[in-house]
Amino acid sequence: MTSLDTLPYDVVIVGARPAGAATAMVLARAGLRVLVVDRSHYGDDTISTHALMRGGVVQLARWGLLHQVAAAGTPPVRGSVFHYGEDRIHVPIKPGFGVDALYAPRRTVLDPILVGAAQKAGADVRFGVAVAGLRRDDRGRVTGIVGRDEGGAPFEVGAWITVGADGLGSTVARFAGAPVERAAASAVAFIYGYWDGLPVHDYELFYRPGVAAGLFPTNSDQVCVFAGTSPRRFRLEMRAGVTSAYTHLLGDTAPEVLAAGARAPKRLRVFAGRRPGYLRQAIGPGWALVGDAGYYKDPITSHGITDALRDAELLSRAIITAVNGKADEALALAAYQATRDRLSKRLFTTTDAIASFAWDLDQVPLLLRQLSEAMSEEVTLLSGLEPIDAAVELVGTSGNKWSQGDSNP
Ligand SMILES: Cc1cc2nc3c(=O)[nH]c(=O)nc-3n(C[C@H](O)[C@H](O)[C@H](O)COP(=O)(O)OP(=O)(O)OC[C@H]3O[C@@H](n4cnc5c(N)ncnc54)[C@H](O)[C@@H]3O)c2cc1C
């Protein structure tokens, strides 16, 4: 056993990316003792494009982190352009809810900013630590994690609440036995890469029957360009190789990208899209899920990071309320799940409808309008939240309900 075993934590979080690092930051800012572990390495990239919707930008602004995103050279995006076949509709980003632009920071930029904020707030963050299971007490309550530390040695650590922020294929969800409560039907396969010299300053989204593409201006003056299609067409296209598949899909969807004379990516990233979305039960005795671990929807609507940042806040508030004894833990966590589900339902079903490609060019704008309405609901809730220190009493460093209680693990 390593020294981790001896450290007492209120909350241990598995996964140090948008969901986990943001949850750790909010909890640590409120005075909780937090450990975050991740099996990857600090600053690693991950398979994901990274357009933030307004809700995600609102969260970064509320947390005082947006200036770091801008300072890293992430260009502000002041409009979205929707291409439906030959039709082109430009929608400006109206200033509102404390933000006047959107951003699509590389994950090598955003994730370290969140990790840094968690550490600055006092959370312990450990990379290279792989979680393999959960601890439980005699009553079956989850009381922490087991796994291997950075050197490969076995470790266990106890905590009052164990949070699974460990993404698709979550180990915490599996060992907690969190059932899927709502399942989507469709999954999109993506190929994306980073272009130099593309004169693009807005988010640009292209829709054609059976295919979609997107352009997101990002760091280093590059533009992230994805092409997406059904897994069936993806398999057919991939027979000729990934470069051919990408070029062919883009040629069908956004030929102006190929014609722009810009420098195409040297490296392409592939996501085969085998997994339709799900909403899992997000809470149980001693555990909770946040981000993709509990709620995954197809990336076609570019909303996963935004929702992860939203739910990090909602879960943290529930935990802080419980630790302060302001609400029964089970009720506080149930309220988190209820709010997550209420805000996610429309996003989830509309995303699944878009991911199905069972739409024509008259129908897809209507689906995107539904998505936009669901996003407004999310943004209204987030921007209306009082700062945590005003909404809930901060947890004193000398101890909280859990550390004083007789059953702290
Ligand atoms: C192709 C693609 C494109 C996308 N594009 C967008 C987009 O444009 N905009 C957007 O908002 N979202 C997008 N998403 C979705 C977005 O990537 C996810 O919603 C987001 O990463 C979820 O964050 P998370 O923190 O929940 O999980 P993740 O980012 O998946 O992080 C989970 C972390 O948990 C760690 N972990 C897992 N298991 C263990 C274990 N057993 N022990 C220790 N650590 C563990 C992993 O190493 C990982 O670092 C896209 C996704 C894909 C696949």
Q: What would you note in describing this structure?
A:
The protein is α/β, with parallel strands linked by helices and 409 residues long. Helix content is 36%, strand content 24%. Strands 1, 2, 5, 6, 7, 8, 16 and 17 form an eight-stranded mixed β-sheet that branches. A seven-stranded mixed β-sheet has the order 4-3-11-12-13-10-14. A three-stranded antiparallel β-sheet has the order 9-15-18, with helices on one face. A hairpin with a 2-residue loop joins β3 (79-84) and β4. Mean pLDDT is 93; it is low at 1-7 and 405-409. The structure holds flavin-adenine dinucleotide. Flavin-adenine dinucleotide binds at residues 14-15, 17-20, 37-40, 46-51, 130-131, 165-167, 171, 190, 271, 291-293, 299, 302-306, 308.
The major beta sheet can be summarized as:
8 strands, mixed
Question: Whole-Å distance between the termini?
Answer: 17 Å
Structural class category: alpha/beta
> Which spans of ≥5 residues are poorly predicted at pLDDT below 50?
1-7, 405-409
Portion of residues in beta strands equals 15-25%
**So how many helices?**
13
Give the overall silhouette.
globular
Number of strands: 18
**Cα-atom radius of gyration:** 21 Å
Provide the list of bound ligands, each named once: flavin-adenine dinucleotide
Mean pLDDT: 93
Estimated helix fraction = 25-40%
